Amino acid sequence: MPLFGNIFSPKKTPPRKSASLSNLQSLDRSIRDVELGLNYGTPTMNLAGQSLKFEKGQWIAEAGISGGVEQREMQRLRRRNQQLEEENNLLRLKVDILLDMLSETTAECHLMEKELDELKSVSRRRKPLVPSL
After folding, report:
1. Backbone angle region of 57, left / alpha / beta, with phi > 0 → left and psi within -120 to 50 → alpha
2. What is the pTM of this model?
3. Residue 6's pLDDT band (cuts 50, 70, 90)
């Protein structure tokens, strides 16, 4: 028998006798829902003097005196960006078409040069019959 008891079986902690010290249990249900419920409202933040709110998965500038002007400018820039992207796509398509045309023309040119070389070699092999005078 050990002198100080079994060190591998510690005493179990006694159960709590007093209730929680939190006063949330004593609050009325309506007050508790307001304080702890899921209705948080829209998240907002102030960044460099611009007030933003989170709606439908995106941060949107809150409408204010300067916010309306910036919102119109933002829409104008988005439209311009869309136009430039469409123009860029069209130009890329044109470049692809021109490269295809160039490669086709180059291939045809090489074929014609090859045929011309073959005709020259055939004509050299044949010696023309020149009548002697």
Report:
1. left
2. 0.43
3. low
